[in-house]
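BUG: 3D viewer hangs when loading the predicted structure for this chain

Environment: internal workstation, default settings.
Expected: structure renders.
Actual: progress bar stalls at 90%.

Input used:
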Amino acid sequence: MLDKQVSNKASNIDALAAHTKASADPLRLNILRILGEGSFGVLELCQLFEIKQSSMSHHLKILANAGLVTTRREGNSIFYRRSLLNATAASLNPAWFDLTEILFRTLDKLGVSETITERLQELYQERAKNSQEFFTKHAAEFHEKQDLIASHEQYGETLEDLVATLNLQQVNTALEIGPGEGALLPELSKRFQQVIGLDVSEAMLKKASLKVAEQNLENIELLHGDCRLAVDHNVQADLVTCNMVLHHVPAPKEIFNYSAELLKPGGCLLITDLCAHDQAWARESCGDLWLGFAPEDLTSWAKEAQLTEEQTQFLALRNGFQIQFRTFRRAVS
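Structure tokens produced before the viewer hung:
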């Protein structure tokens, strides 16, 4: 028994040594810092740091063996991300969980070089361009494409019921990021004095404007742009909603950061999106950048944005997809 205890302690020390050694390298620390922004493929990381693929793969393998990064498959591509720091991780790696948490928190406080920042924005723009081109090309058959996964008719009633039960201090302004054809806009128009629809796709904004005109929704304003535009316009919303849009966004984590800035104290962020799935055809057929999200992803991004998790609901669809409805709250003070 004593020999087994000694062996376990030695094993823990060896693992901890590998963990600390993995992070004791400037390049790997920079990689971990960037992975705090989201998920990236090997070639994307090579582009950001201008190093060969073989060298990047070597560093990622060291970080993965140390438990500092994990992977997820998006179709035929493998994306790397920082390991989630949650209760499960704490129970699996209690010996160095606190150390990892401190490391990640410290890295997040450090700035990224101007060069890397510029390359990162170029990468996001490239992702966004691919998404926008898809919607420009397929705007006419958007509803048909949406039906392949989840049409609004399949989950809209659940979503509208959730909007109706939100405990909001005020109902002055609602901001919808990516309203698409505008299916949710009439419900928001009934419940809020002012509704802003924000979309990067001009083609989809035109379809939403038809919905607004048809139903004479006079309290709705549609803007062409991303969340930075709403920040520049000093929008302060009681509700920010992102309905089946997150899987089209180049950097999903940014939605949470921007929402925290756009919400009034006590305001609510409502996310409706797909749970993680393995149906890779959705990338080509529906323009999806991401194959859904694990619920803990959204929880982690909200926590980092200092938003408190509230309601969580799931809806399973007959075609094998599952939708998650999540609400997060900005603190009152």
